[in-house]
Amino acid sequence: MIPLRDSIPSSRTPIVTYTLLGLCTLVFVLQLGDAQGALLERFGMVPARVFDPHGDHVLRGLGRAHRLAPAMVPEWLTLLTCTFLHGGWLHFLGNMLFLWIFGDNVEDRFGRPAFLVFYLAAGVAASAAHLLTAASSTVPTIGASGAIAGVMGAYMLLYPQSRVQMLVVWGFFVDLVVLPAPFFLGYWFLLQLLQGAIEFGRGGGGVAWWAHIGGFVAGALVAAVLRATEHLRPEPPAVALSRRRYGSGRAVRRW
Fold first, then answer.
1. Is residue 203 within 8 Å of 134, Cβ to Cβ?
2. 3.40.47.10, 1.10.1020.10, 3.50.50.60, 1.20.1540.10: CATH of 2-254
């Protein structure tokens, strides 16, 4: 299921969201010219290196091993710098899509300066969650997923009436399905919990599930506090979303 858009329009230009999208894109372009992956090692978060900055850390994989390059920033700062790096086109495009859809609405309610601080803090909280659950890992952790999970957690609390238009592929059929946003985001979070429980303590490569979990929980908690203390901007009205099924290139059902 691929989200395409939500039913909540922004009441003003989401400058911070656009800036974050631009920064992530710029860094990804730099990564495309980094064939040796030096940026990943020097700015990615390596849990073992954070706990032991002066240790001799070796990355093993694909039948070979090499010593990790030292971080270009203090190790604790890699909890933040890693959130602007990505591991490939799918990783990058998927994260940017989710930030594009949900970021503008959370920025709308938080206000621009508060949203920027929130996004960066959610990224650090997500990195910390992975750090604590994979403390001995020498695999560089990268990606904006944890920070964006924080945005998604906040969105679920702030827009309980919102709906999300999803692209769903069923064999030769392509559905445009509209789902309640809390259902989609809750389902996504439960998947992270399930995978996180399966992978707990392994500390290897793949997906940093606990970063997603930590970011989502942190975002939901911050949104809950701001809502309870009435430190939010007004909610804009929702708009209707159409639903249509396509098969073999033509519409066969509309409702």
1. yes
2. 1.20.1540.10
Contact of 82 with 141, CB cutoff 8 Å: yes
Distance between CA atoms of residues 141 and 83, nearest Å: 9
Q: At residue 63, does pLDDT exceed 50?
A: yes
Q: Nearest 5 degrees, angle CA 95-CA 97-CA 103? A: 90
Per-residue pLDDT of 136-159, as tens digits, reads 999 999 999 999 999 999 999 999
- Strand, coil or helix: 76: helix
> For residue 42, how far is the Cα from the chain centroid?
21
* Pure H helices in the chain: 15-32, 38-43, 47-51, 78-81, 89-110, 112-133, 145-158, 181-199, 209-228
What does the domain layout of the chain look like in residue ranges?
2-254
Cα gap 100→111, rounded to integer Å: 16
Q: What is the mean pLDDT of the chain?
A: 89
Pairing type for strands 163-170 and 64-67 reads unpaired
